[in-house]
Amino acid sequence: MGEFDGLVAAVTGGASGIGLATARLLAERGAAVAVLDLRPHDVGESLLGVRCDVTDDGEVRSAVEAVRERFGGLDVLVNNAGIGAQGDISANDDAEWHHVLDVNVVGIARVSRAALGLLRASEHAAIVNTCSIAGIAGLPQRALYSASKGAVRALTLAMAADHVREGIRVNCVAPGTVDTPWIGRLLDSAADPGAERAALEARQPTGRLVSAAEVAHAIVHLASPAAAGTTGTVLNVDGGMSGLRVRPA
Ligand code: NAD
């Protein structure tokens, strides 16, 4: 028996990295899983891939409706789709600010709003948002991204308060640097990818990057009926980055 037997989950940004690891783990634990992503065909056969750009309200509504049609309801929503931005406040123009906030913050509101009716009807309703260490601690050269993830943290708490009496739990995870295709792309664009990777590893007290599976396990725990007493929390999965003062090795 899996702890998600009979439950339905949707994971945005579930075609890659943290989202894909989460979608697979939810399926392994018994959930029927839909992946809502720009690239729905990348998810394999055990998951339902649904085309969904979280910045497009029409696509979001259709995707949630597709989940309802296929699986009959929705119990777990993982709002994980996100994009990055580098630099200080001068590095990005207004259009870039609006776009990153649209994907990383408004996207969560848009998908959650579309899913609320189904979640209210569930006896095990849980939302887990993907925040970041950048929303917790001050990181250099991440102004826009940090602003978006700080908003994810605040939105998580606000949603938790608004929906607690309806039986919908809302939590978020705050990963450190995670070994996903996203970080792969960042390293590929560096002048010396090996040195850049070593610098990212040294920044984490554990001396290594967090794995996508480690973040997935945290998300799946928060989403599970076993976490029924937990709402409005931020679970750091950051190799100690936010809380520890350890010299780089
Ligand atoms: P990734 O690039 O490997 O995967 C992101 C997924 O999101 C992709 O499948 C992409 O197609 C999808 N996506 C992007 N824009 C979308 C949109 N508008 N609508 C729907 N889907 C969209 O990234 P990842 O590293 O797995 O990151 C996932 C989440 O984790 C993001 O929210 C990111 O901010 C957060 N995070 C990542 C790290 C890290 O170091 N990798 C650290 C902290 C937080």
From TrEMBL:
Keywords: NAD, Oxidoreductase
One Pfam family it belongs to: adh_short_C2
SUPFAM superfamilies: NAD(P)-binding Rossmann-fold domains
Start and end residues of each Ketoreductase domain: 7-176
Domain of life where this protein originates: Bacteria
Keyword Oxidoreductase applies: yes
SMART domains to which the protein is assigned, alphabetical: PKS_KR (SM00822)
Family recorded in the similarity comment: Belongs to the short-chain dehydrogenases/reductases (SDR) family.
Protein name, per record: SDR family oxidoreductase
Record organism: Saccharopolyspora erythraea
